[in-house]
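Q: What residues go here?
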């Protein structure tokens, strides 16, 4: 049986936990470890890169790889389809398109997602509901240079959240969490008092070095988010 990079990660983590490789230990080189585990060097490299990304190992040029003195476990977030999120919580999902327009990217957005002046973008504002209650207000911009098919999709019955996740890959993303005092418009859509504190997320996704979409999401009061480490 071939040794997978996941098997290697499990074994390395085991050696760290049982102090075979205590915190701060310099690990053997990839060639030596690949020989020990009976795998290709590329497989070993992927396992090591994943553990660096997970905050367990650190790499420095010419200094090799070692166990971090203070390993950091990263919270894991997935981009959920809002419909599934509502239904899994026992609610009845519905969706409403508020506005859809194709316009050149405004200056603030060009800086945010690194697109050229006059780059075509699709701007969509919509609402998601759980039963009769507002669940999320979505204000989204789609880079049409990267997702040209979005220009011909009407988004009348399917929201951009669900359509994009099913149609367009992304390689990296950024999430910014914040508290937001509801404006008159947001308060009206989410049926909450003006200036009430709401949970908000700014989300940007990228396909390699090109932006896919930027979204500002506002959630109804008492919304909770769960992450795992």
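A:
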């Amino acid at each position: 049986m071939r040794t997978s990079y996941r098997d290697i990660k499990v074994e390395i983590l085991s050696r760290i936990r049982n102090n075979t490789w205590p915190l701060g230990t310099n690990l053997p080189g990839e060639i030596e470890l690949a020989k020990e585990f009976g795998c290709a060097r590329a497989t070993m490299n992927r396992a090591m890169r994943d553990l660096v990304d997970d905050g367990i190992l650190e790499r420095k040029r010419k200094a090799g790889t070692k166990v971090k003195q203070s390993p950091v476990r990263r919270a894991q977030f997935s981009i959920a389809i809002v419909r599934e999120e509502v239904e899994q919580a026992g609610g009845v999902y519905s969706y409403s398109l508020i506005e859809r327009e194709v316009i050149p990217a405004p200056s603030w957005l060009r800086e945010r997602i690194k697109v050229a002046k006059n780059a075509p973008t699709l701007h969509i504002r919509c609402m998601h509901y759980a039963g009769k209650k507002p669940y999320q207000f979505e204000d989204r911009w789609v880079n049409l240079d990267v997702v040209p098919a979005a220009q011909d999709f009407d988004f009348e019955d399917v929201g951009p959240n669900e359509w994009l996740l099913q149609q367009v890959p992304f390689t990296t993303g950024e999430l910014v969490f914040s508290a937001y005092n509801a404006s008159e418009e947001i308060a009206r859509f989410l049926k909450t008092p003006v200036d009430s504190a709401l949970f908000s997320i700014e989300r940007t996704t990228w396909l390699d070095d090109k932006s896919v979409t930027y979204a500002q999401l506002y959630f109804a009061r008492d919304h909770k988010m769960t992450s795992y480490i």
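A: Context that may help when evaluating the design: The chain has two domains: 5-67, 82-219. Helices lie at 5-17, 30-37, 41-53, 82-88, 107-113, 160-167, 184-190.
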